[in-house]
Write a structure and sequence with these properties.
Chain B: InterPro entries: ABC/ECF_trnsptr_transmembrane (IPR003339). The complex is a heterodimer of chains A (543) and B (413). Chain A has 543 residues and is of the alpha/beta class. Chain A is built from 22 helices and 20 strands. Chain A has a 6-stranded mixed β-sheet with strand order 6-7-8-3-9-10, sandwiched between helices. Chain B has a two-stranded antiparallel sheet. The chains are: A alpha/beta (543), B mainly alpha (413).
């Protein structure tokens, strides 16, 4: 179906080729997962399949890519539209029309299909993806998961044999991501569509994949069975780490596989005491919020929420998209709207409400890194951003730079913030906000688009912030991250707090929020691979 | 989930109310009328309004337009813009009257009140500020303003009745590229506003004050970079979905069709102007309009032949569309006839003051104008189209994602 023959892709601005001499053959009907670190060339590989590389992006491509016998050299993307469907990371950016039904029909209109065929396919696709009730809705009013399913539907109506998905679930909450992936696996199983999907959170997809393409970053591609490829790489979901720790071969890829083998492991750990819960904080809270109300025209985003943040503690804020997480963070920081309630931050000069302070002083009390950290950055170089941050916070020259160097490997001074990777940009935005030395740090969905490495690094950074005595809130969808990072978990729904407790309490109580390790080890209360390894070592010394 | 969705899809196709009897023709089922029909109807009404200053038929025309809007508009946001046009019309009338009051202008015998006149220098001779206010002068302003307001309200009615975007979709194939650009621009505008708001909010987080050139740069740079990223993503998406698959048209042919269309449209504009303004020579009126239309149609047909794409659920031009558009045309024609039969009644003199009168022909005009309130099919309303889906977990588990989605989307709405 898809053949890469000695493909080398080189962009003008980088000396090293993105892909080097790649040979691949993806047969029909496979679900093929593409993994690799940020910048390793996943998108380049995906976009080469329908000729966007190099027809659209520039650069040079040596070798040949053929899809169903069509050479991308002579077929630009538009001439492959009936064979390859491509869905990008941000579905909203790729929508051409403004209602669901028209968007589904757009591709077929370009292919000049007849009206009865179009009508029939639109109805079929609406049913196939379970979006029939959305047909007249404006695309902008849909939730993230719905948008992503519409975007997939919009390319499916052209009946492509190949579906290319670039991180389809990176912005979605766990349930919405499951919906999207369920739709994708159905396409593979029922319609025999060949799917090529890139994804950072391997744990979500790897169990469905027939094949894993791993890009180590030097331009080569490692190709093979998921279990085999995963055994040798350092980029692995928690289940695989658990399998390695327990010495299972082949490695388990789904919770079901692992659970069937885990009986023995559970027995070995049977009498090991569970990890101690973090001690209840005795220090007075650094920030107290009472009865926070945030309303937007027509909706109540936050409905009377109380929140206490203690110094040195990491709180994870969870809940589906649109449940009021961001609104709460912005309201607490004082920059966002707040129609009711009080916020008190204890600072050097007594307790104050950050909303009453000028913006420059408020950020010295509560620092917030927004969902798109790039919004904070507007200068041409990393150096200029750091200098500006020092000026804004009246900090000694070099403060921000020093913070940045602690957070991440040294970034070149003259690099443009837009050219940084997601992780580096997050680190820069965080350094800018930390320059003001706020005792409370709020992070709004910081791990979007971060690979396992960057996430590990981020975890270390946040831990350091906590040990320095700061109160940290991380709003996120990533249950695995929460399991390793947070002391306390707060779950929001419809603007209210529906669960609030220690990480173990909240995460073990519901299957939707349980990390993979917990699902495998239930009813024993283990959350992370590290805990299990530590307990195994302890059990070993005792036995 | 699919079974459920299928059942749901089928349920939608069967009418919710059983058809009301033997005479259920396709034209009477709730549906959206072709936007072109509404625009033709509204233009007809506007043309009729332009042919008279008599406040009685003007007021009746406004009432007719309002009645049709109320009975036949959908529930989309633009459908409720009609009130804005009514307010705008009232403002226009008030402005006209106030202008006559301030600048005096027309003299009359029935002086209502004396305002002190502001003496102006000699070079401003002919302009008078304030001074005596005569009933004739105010009435003249009122008539004039009412005519303009009525024309505007008629166009507002078209705007409320027809989805502006569907009108764009109905453009001839030759103008497809332009209409795509307009649609994209329309959807990008709110995104830009969103970006600006988001970046402005983020700037507060850095403690930046919101003024001056520096602030502009701090906002404009991320917003523009964002817009650029987004437009690249959109271009890539359009390309990979097949946009522009048949772009190879010889340059000569493109110039010919473009020239024809352009010349035709100029002809249509001149012709319309000639038709509306009674003072221009008559050959610039209807004949020019017809010649222009013909040229434009030929050009578009030629260009349209080269475009190979189809259209999903196009608005079809059916008998009801013809009837509604015909009502508009008939309104204009009957008004023109009324004008030639009895010009004095259509332009009631303000000096001497006379009561405006209605003639049977004027009543006929209004009757024809209001007919679409009953002739046009009722609009489809969202309540009818999207009944709440019944959510039964298909596999017996407690996971209820569709429910999450619905509640979420409601929250966002």
């Amino acid at each position: 179906m898809i053949d890469f023959s000695r493909v080398t892709v080189r962009y003008a601005e980088t000396p090293e080729p993105m892909l080097r001499d790649v040979n691949l053959h993806i047969p029909e009907g496979e679900l093929c997962l593409v993994a690799g670190r940020t910048g390793a060339g996943k998108s380049t590989l995906l976009r080469a399949i329908n000729g966007l590389v190099p027809h659209f992006t520039g650069g040079t491509l040596h070798g040949t890519v053929t899809v169903q016998g069509r050479d991308t050299r002579s077929h630009p993307p538009r001439d492959l539209a009936d064979v390859v469907g491509v869905v990008g990371q941000d579905p909203l950016a790729g929508f051409v029309t403004d209602t669901v039904e028209e968007e589904l029909a757009y591709g077929m209109e370009q292919l000049a299909l007849t009206a009865p065929v179009m009508r029939k396919r639109v109805e079929e696709t609406l049913d196939l993806l379970g979006i029939a009730e959305l047909r007249d809705r404006p695309l902008r009013t849909l939730s993230g998961g719905q948008q992503q399913r519409v975007a997939i539907g919009a390319v499916l109506t052209s009946h492509p044999q190949v579906l290319v998905l670039d991180e389809p679930t990176s912005a979605l909450d766990p349930t919405a991501a499951e919906d999207v992936l369920a739709a994708v696996t159905r396409l593979v199983h029922d319609l025999g569509v060949t799917v090529v999907v890139a994804e950072h959170r391997l744990e979500r997809v790897v169990q469905y994949a027939d094949r894993l393409l791993y890009l180590p970053g030097d331009g080569t591609v490692i190709d093979g069975e998921p279990a085999v490829v995963l055994a040798d790489i350092d980029l692995a979901p928690p289940l695989v780490d658990l399998g390695r720790a327990a010495g299972w071969t082949p490695l388990p890829l789904s919770v079901r596989d692992a659970r069937r083998r885990a009986a023995d492991l559970r027995q070995r750990l049977g009498d090991t005491p569970p990890p101690p819960a973090p001690p209840t904080p005795d220090a007075p809270p650094a920030l107290t919020a009472r009865d926070i109300v945030v309303r937007y025209p027509g909706t109540v985003a936050v409905a009377g929420v109380d929140l206490d943040l203690h110094p040195g503690r990491i709180v994870a804020l969870m809940g589906r998209n649109g449940s009021g997480k961001s609104s709460l963070l912005w309201a607490v920081q004082g920059s966002g709207p707040r129609q009711g309630g009080t916020v008190t931050v204890t600072g050097p000069d007594g307790a104050t409400d950050p909303k009453t302070l000028p913006a420059g002083r408020a950020r010295q009390r509560v620092g917030l890194v927004p969902q798109t950290p790039g919004d904070l950055l507007y200068l041409e170089t990393v150096e200029a951003e750091c200098a500006q941050a020092d000026r804004e916070s009246d900090a000694p020259v070099g403060t921000c730079r020093a913070l940045l160097d602690q957070l991440t490997a040294v970034l070149p001074d003259d690099q443009h913030p837009r050219d940084l990777s997601e992780g580096q940009r997050l680190a820069l935005a965080l350094a800018v906000q930390l320059t003001a030395a706020p005792p409370v740090v709020l992070l709004d969905e910081p791990t979007r688009g971060l690979d396992y490495h960057a996430k590990r690094q981020f975890t270390a950074i946040v831990r350091r912030l906590a040990t320095e005595g700061r109160a940290v809130v991380v709003a996120t969808h990533d249950v695995e991250l929460v399991a390793t990072l947070a002391d306390r978990v707060v779950v929001m729904a419809q603007g209210e707090i529906v669960a609030d407790g220690t990480t173990a309490e909240v995460m073990l109580a519901s299957p939707a929020f349980a990390p993979q390790v917990a699902k495998v080890m239930a009813p024993q209360p283990w959350l992370t691979v590290d805990q299990v390894t530590a307990a195994l070592a302890e059990a070993g010394t005792r036995g | 989930m699919t079974d459920q969705a299928t059942a749901h899809g089928v349920a939608r196709q069967t009418p919710l109310r059983p058809p009301a009897g033997r005479l259920t023709v396709a034209g009477r089922l709730p549906r959206a009328l072709h936007p072109g029909a509404w625009w033709l109807w509204a233009l007809g009404l506007a043309t009729a309004a332009s042919h008279t200053t008599n406040p009685l038929p003007l007021a009746l025309l406004v009432a007719a337009a309002a009645l049709v809007v109320v009975r036949r508009r959908g529930d989309a946001p633009w459908a409720f813009a009609f009130r804005m046009y009514l307010i705008l019309g009232a403002v226009i009338v008030a402005m006209r009257v106030v202008f006559r009051l301030v600048f005096g202008g027309g003299q009359g015998d029935h002086v209502l009140l004396h305002l002190p006149e502001i003496p102006l220098p000699a070079w401003a001779a002919g302009i008078r500020l304030f001074g005596p206010v005569a009933a004739e002068q105010l009435l003249g302003g009122f008539y004039d303003g009412l005519r303009l307001a009525t024309m505007l309200i008629c166009l507002g009615a078209a705007n409320a009745l027809a989805n502006p975007k569907r009108l764009l979709k109905a453009v001839p194939a030759a103008l497809y590229a332009i209409s795509t650009a307009v649609v994209v621009a329309l959807s990008v505008a709110p995104q830009l506003v969103e970006s600006v708001l988001r970046v402005r909010r983020a700037r507060r987080l850095r403690g930046a004050t919101g003024n001056g050139l520096r602030a502009l740069r701090g906002i404009a740079l991320p917003v523009l970079a964002d817009a650029l990223d987004r437009s690249l993503a959109l271009a890539a998406a359009m390309d990979s979905r097949g946009y522009g698959r048949t772009a190879a048209i010889p340059a000569g042919q493109r110039a010919l069709t473009g020239g024809l269309v352009l010349a035709g449209l100029v002809g249509v504009c001149v012709g319309t102007y000639g038709l509306l303004d009674a003072t221009v020579p008559s050959y610039l009126g209807l004949p020019m309009l017809i010649v222009g239309l013909a040229t434009a149609v030929v050009g578009m047909l030629l260009a349209g032949r080269q475009v190979r794409r189809s259209r999903y659920r196009p608005d079809r031009w059916r008998i009801t569309e013809v009837v509604v558009a015909g009502c508009g045309v008939a309104t204009a024609v009957v008004m023109a006839v009324a004008g030639s039969v009895d010009p004095v009644r259509l332009y009631p003199p303000v000096s001497p003051l006379t009561w405006p009168e209605l003639t049977p022909l004027m009543l006929l005009v209004v009757a024809v104008a209001v007919a679409p309130a009953w002739l046009a099919p009722p609009p489809t309303l969202a309540d009818h189209r999207t009944p709440r889906p019944v959510l039964i977990p298909s596999d017996g588990t407690t996971r209820s994602s569709p429910k999450c989605d619905t509640s979420e989307s409601e929250a966002q709405r």
